[in-house]
Amino acid sequence: MSKKRAVILVSGGLDSTTVLAMAQSQGYACYTLSFDYGQRHRAELFAAERVSRVLGDVEHKVVTLNLDSIGGSALTDADIAVPEEETAGIPVTYVPARNTVFLSIALGWAEVLGAEDIFIGVNAVDYSGYPDCRPDYIAAFETMANLATRAGVEGNKLRIHTPLMAMGKGDIIAAGLALGVDYGLTVSCYQATDEGLACGRCDACRLRARGFVDAGVDDPTRYA
């Protein structure tokens, strides 16, 4: 009997790598999807390919988007500095509509593959205030997905899986380690060097470092 197929959004970071390991542990044949969207931290693309290969995906696809052409985020506009202190509200590292764009393309590939499951590593506990990481958003997108696709109309219910939604960073790391994840392969930093060295100061670095402390394990992150 062939495995059920699933599309896994993989950024090369800690969360999405854990989600990939979880999907594989549930018996899915995993098709990993990453985006070259004009992000300044391009080391994550190499990390995404690396973790997909090491964890054993069926196919890894990189889709090119030019979200930097509209800007509006410190991650896509070189004129907006990545903050190195905690900020209130939605931070400037929020990329306008990013998860909506990413999930829409994942939805299209899922239809092509005949996959009914999409996994994404969004989190509503240790997250940076992004509106497209909330449970209500994911539920609304899943409803839309089943209204807007041939698969949904023909009765093949599409599901958006968010296994990390209610987990803290320490719990995520513990779960990944139990599944054999090597977090030294991952890159989370918003301004990582091309070699994947982390700044240790941005919001993503702070959350990641705190997670390893909470998990009670050594931090394998390579810092600049």
From TrEMBL:
Entry's cofactor comment: Binds 1 zinc ion per subunit.
Principal EC category: ligase
Signal peptide range: none
Required cofactor names: Zn(2+)
Top-rank lineage group of the source organism: Bacteria
Keywords: ATP-binding, Ligase, Metal-binding, Nucleotide-binding, Queuosine biosynthesis, Zinc
Alphabetical list of InterPro entries matching this protein: QueC (IPR018317), Rossmann-like_a/b/a_fold (IPR014729)
Positions bound to ATP: 10-20
SUPFAM superfamilies found in the cross-reference section: Adenine nucleotide alpha hydrolases-like
Stated role: Catalyzes the ATP-dependent conversion of 7-carboxy-7-deazaguanine (CDG) to 7-cyano-7-deazaguanine (preQ(0)).
Protein family per UniProt: Belongs to the QueC family.
Protein name: 7-cyano-7-deazaguanine synthase
Organism from which the protein derives: Seongchinamella unica
